[in-house]
């Protein structure tokens, strides 16, 4: 049975996670592979694309610009660029914050009008952080509450280069500005408070873009891109769930293969090492190996957060069983993700029997907990749902109800089937209890 469309599940704890697997293609790289292929001149090929709904929405969106995509049915896409005209319909990003923000940057460079929207969760996420710099570049951007929330309307074209310092450290904001900068009349520079993930920089260079990176400054020169072939590697953010699953119960041992090894995406490995986890990451092969360990508490600050912004919910589960008190601060950006990840991660932990204090920009987790079954509301956040499932399967005795499970299909179709395979956990649909 597939659990991808199931709204709620009951998970019965089983114990250690043991086995090897490959995770879906990296979601962040998948979005960028499609968008850069759509901007490039010529035919690009993309393999290993994420199967999640978020990336499917981006694929459908670029087709609205007249981009032709051919799927050979064996995981290989041919993308014929460049963009031919303004979109002929509304661009629906679904649940994807990366999708809507990066597409807004693309739309700013297109001579015409684009309308961007998403699901009810995405329409609550802040968009002024991209609307403001795109306006400075000359695009006309409007939306709900003066462009603070989607739906957004972008009239693009006639852009000029700027130097911009985002208020929050965000690879999405940086990338939106850089993509718009490809169509500006001069160089565009983004100055960050803390270095963020460099997917866009790396991929632009491969596509013939002129990019310069200097510590926390990145500059892009305007100009065309060249079609290229992209093989999307496995998503480290998804591997983090299996790493923690291996750590939670005695006898756990998991190997994840073919992962992306670029800048800023394996920071969760360093955090788990600080917690005394037995974890190895071979960057030459992208192989992650994790064995069950006695964990220790850790302190994480604003400098750590940009590299683990997606992994905090599952790292919080690891902190719950670690010895000592874990403090996470400087993570206010988590309140603007798919859900309020500070409040709702704390709620998940409390539901599983953990003592945790919510702070304005983070949380304080009292470790050494004996997790017990509970009722977890994921609030439509796929990462919270998966973190709860890992905790329920590997660290509890009894049955845990997780609602909002259907959100997982946005990023990781087949996650529950893998969890069952690795742990032997019992899982049943519980939609009649929602």
Mind explaining what this structure looks like?
The protein is of the alpha/beta class and 434 residues long. The protein is 31% helix and 24% strand. The chain is built from 13 helices and 24 strands. A four-stranded mixed sheet has the order 22-23-1-24. It has a four-stranded mixed sheet with strand order 2-15-17-16. Strand 22, helix 12 and strand 23 form a beta-alpha-beta unit. The protein is globular and about 60 Å long. The model has no long low-confidence stretch (mean pLDDT 95).
Write down the overall mean pLDDT: 95
Low-confidence runs: none
Biggest sheet overview: 4 strands, mixed
For the record, give the distance between the C-alpha atoms at the N and C termini, rounded to a whole number: 19 Å
Alpha-beta content class: alpha/beta
| Total DSSP E strands | 24
Helix content: 25-40%
Tally the helices: what do you get? 13
Shape field? globular
Report strand order across the widest sheet.
Answer: 22-23-1-24
Provide the gyration radius in Å. 21 Å
Strand proportion, as a percent range, falls in 15-25%
Offer a concise description of the structure.
By secondary structure, the chain is of the alpha/beta class. It has helices at 27-39, 53-63, 97-108, 128-136, 144-147, 171-181, 199-206, 236-248, 267-274, 312-321, 341-351, 382-395, 415-423; strands at residues 8-12, 18-22, 42-47, 68-71, 76-81, 91-92, 113-117, 140-143, 149-155, 163-164, 188-191, 211-214, 217-220, 229-231, 253-257, 278-282, 287-291, 299-300, 325-328, 356-359, 362-366, 375-377, 399-403, 426-429.
């Amino acid at each position: 049975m597939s659990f991808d469309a199931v709204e709620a599940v009951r998970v019965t704890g089983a114990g250690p996670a043991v086995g090897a697997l490959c995770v879906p293609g990296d979601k962040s790289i998948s979005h960028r592979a499609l968008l850069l292929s759509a901007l490039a001149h010529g035919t690009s090929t993309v393999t290993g694309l994420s199967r999640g709904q978020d990336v499917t929405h981006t694929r459908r969106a670029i087709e609205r610009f007249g981009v032709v995509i051919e799927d050979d049915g064996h995981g290989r896409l041919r993308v014929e660029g460049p963009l031919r005209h303004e979109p002929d319909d509304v661009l629906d990003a679904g649940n994807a914050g990366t999708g809507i923000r990066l597409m807004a940057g693309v739309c700013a460079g297109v001579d015409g009008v684009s309308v961007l929207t998403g699901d009810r969760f995405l329409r609550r996420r802040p968009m002024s952080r991209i609307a403001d710099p795109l306006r400075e570049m000359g695009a006309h951007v409007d939306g709900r509450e003066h462009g603070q929330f989607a739906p957004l309307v972008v009239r693009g074209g006639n852009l000029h280069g700027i130097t911009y310092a985002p208020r929050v450290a965000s690879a999405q904001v940086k990338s939106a500005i850089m993509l718009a900068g490809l169509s500006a009349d001069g160089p565009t520079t983004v100055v960050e408070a803390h270095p963020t993930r460099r997917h866009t920089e790396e991929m632009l260079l491969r596509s013939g873009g002129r990019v310069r990176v200097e510590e926390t400054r990145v500059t892009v020169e305007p100009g065309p891109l060249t079609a290229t072939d992209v093989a999307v590697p496995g998503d480290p953010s998804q591997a983090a769930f299996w790493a923690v699953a291996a750590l939670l119960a005695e006898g756990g041992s998991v190997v994840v293969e073919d992962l992306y090894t670029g800048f800023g995406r394996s920071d969760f490995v360093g955090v788990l090492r600080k917690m005394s986890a037995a974890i190895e990451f071979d960057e030459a092969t992208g192989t992650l190996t994790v064995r069950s360990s006695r964990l220790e508490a850790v302190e994480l600050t604003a400098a750590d957060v940009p590299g683990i912004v997606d992994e905090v919910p599952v790292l919080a589960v690891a902190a719950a069983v670690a010895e000592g008190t874990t403090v996470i601060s400087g993570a206010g950006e988590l309140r603007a993700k798919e859900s309020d990840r500070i409040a709702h991660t704390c709620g998940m932990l409390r539901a599983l029997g953990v003592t945790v204090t919510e702070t304005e920009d983070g949380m304080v987790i009292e470790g050494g907990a004996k997790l017990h079954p509970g009722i977890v509301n994921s609030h439509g956040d796929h990462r919270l749902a998966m973190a709860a499932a890992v905790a329920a399967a590997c660290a509890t005795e009894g049955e845990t109800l997780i609602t909002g499970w259907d959100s997982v299909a946005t990023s990781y179709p087949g996650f529950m089937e893998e969890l069952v395979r690795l742990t032997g956990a019992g899982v049943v649909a519980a939609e009649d209890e929602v």
